[in-house]
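Q: Sequence in, structure out?
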Amino acid sequence: MSGTRQSDTNQRPKKGGIPLGLILLVLLLALILGGLGFAVHVLWIVALIVFLFWLIGFGVGRSETAGRRHWYRW
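A: Exactly. Output:
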């Protein structure tokens, strides 16, 4: 015996292979950015709805207090 194992001599580095960790990292990044984009889109829609309610409330409150100088009741 020469002192080396048979399994050690059969292992060779892979040529041109993409590491699995890199693929998983790219997929994870795509999931995070895709989910973030969807969440931001939903938040814009929610912000527009809240703004419309505020605008309607502002107009209704303005007509109720037509004789007053201030337009908010704190």
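The two ends are 92 Å apart (CA to CA).
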